[in-house]
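Fold this sequence, please.
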Amino acid sequence: MLNYCIKLKFNTALHVGKESQTTDMSQSNKIVHNDTLFSALVIESQRVFGNEGMRKFIEDNIKGKIKFSSLLPYKAEHYLIPRPIIAIKSDIADNNKDKSFAKKMKKLSFLPASMLKDLIEYYKGNQNFDADFCLNLEKELGKEDIRVNCKINRERTGQDNMPYYVGTYSYNEDSGLYFILSVEDEKSFSRILKIIKSLGYSGLGGRINNGLGKFCVEDYVLIDENAQNKDLMILNSLLTNDKAQKYMTLSLCLPKQEEIKEIVEGANYSLVKRSGFIQSANFSDSLCKKKDMFVFNIGSTFKQNFTGDVFDVSPFEGNHKVYRHLKPFWLGVDV
């Protein structure tokens, strides 16, 4: 498989629901998960290549011919990955640790890929870790904001127009989101890149009709042993480590039923609830919710990898199936 790093530069603010999937629209996440990206690409593939192209895109994902991570932050030349959820025994007692530094570590969500080894060594008690650098990177990615929109009463019932609040996240000039895309060959990559570029005009995330989530593909590069960027060099080594002690996922994922018993032992993970409404206008005459699912969050680690699946989350038998992409995207991590 060929691994490409695709950088997206957002031209407008972004609105994406938090992992908790609350109904509070005044909050917005700064990243976009793989299941949201998949749904958007499915719809866009139909616009670009028609029904047959959409079916091929879905089928290639199910068969593992296409793999991709969640959209994660970058700042300048720093490519951030989630802090791994991992348990490592240390010879240093907890009561000897700096409490103020421990508070900083609790706030840490992302770190440059090139600092992953430093973090693991810190867990082992072997050296210090520059948490301030990572926290400042995340702080300087962009800023949150709240927009006030108005719901117009078109029924003329005498009720007032109702304001509502939409949380957004705007990336700074040198920041944005990237994801890693794995494909079989360059022809497949060119086809998917066309869909991604088209999606930039349609928008990604929620409230795209209000002009949110517009982006352009700023750059893309093949991740291999010739990578010039320090973070991409480390990512290449992690992507190709198929005999690792732990496997960390860069995407929301869920094993197939027959895989669950094998992967739970020795796993370190957090669970998030995923729900949401069906965006397809062809599924039903009315607005419908997808089936709720609890899935493994990014950064979860396992002793052995699994394939996961693209699950059918249709609430009932509509005009077509509705899918949620929950295949893991693995980094091999030695601890």
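The mean pLDDT is 88. The helical segments are 34-62, 99-107, 116-124, 131-139, 186-202, 230-239, 260-264.
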